[in-house]
Amino acid sequence: MISMQDLGEFSLADEDLFDVQSITDAMMTTSQSITELAIRFFLNLAVCWILIQFFYYRKSRRRDYYFTFMVFSSAMLMLLYMMGNVEVGVGLTLGLFAIFGIIRYRTETVPIREMTYLFVIIALAAMNGLAPVYKLVGATTTNAHYELSTGTIGVMLIANALVVCLIWILESPRLLHHTSTKLVLYDRIELIVPEKRSELIADLESRIGIKVDNVEIGHVDFLRDAAFIKVYYTLEKGQTATIDTLTKAKDFVEQ
Hints:
Blueprint: H1 4-24, H2 30-60, H3 63-84, H4 90-105, H5 112-130, E1 134-137, E2 145-148, H6 150-171, E3 179-186, H7 197-208, E4 212-221, E5 226-234
Antiparallel strand pairs: 1-2, 3-5, 4-5
């Protein structure tokens, strides 16, 4: 038989459980949700714009990837944010974007630099879309509410700043000498032998007008007396070369 003392302890335990559930189920107000979304969206948009405008586009001048990066980042953040508020795992969200990426990019070769920036954009969107901006405060049902977590926002700002600084350092021409390549269809195949390597380099320098660092011999066509040669050279500070590896006119699309 259950005594009155047991009933009292049961009631107290039930009341404590009710309090925990009430605190856990506390909801943010509409204004707080809008503020949270605005902080995430504009912080992510600003950081991505800085990376694309001042680091990527300054060298590549590709308007198509400029558009892709900006829209992809914003859409990724919105999807992560909305799915973070429902019973859907982050893995499913990333899987959806992986499917979209396969559908779009499987028929087009994406350069390694563009792919790197795409991965950075996805990582920033995931970080800015999932980091907790609000925290639950209050120990009772009467004062449990959400407050802006300045510490978390500070960490987000520092993390975004670190990514920007890293790319700024790595993209700085003072840190690294940028080596580029040209694919040349060469007509003097008598010079491609190892014994005449110095004559080959001198001929390429006089005809192309650049200081050649190294050459690689590719396909040789003896019927047409021609050979494909990859020419390595060092870019001057501030210079870029985005179409050196193109060999057909149809591959060049001015953006």
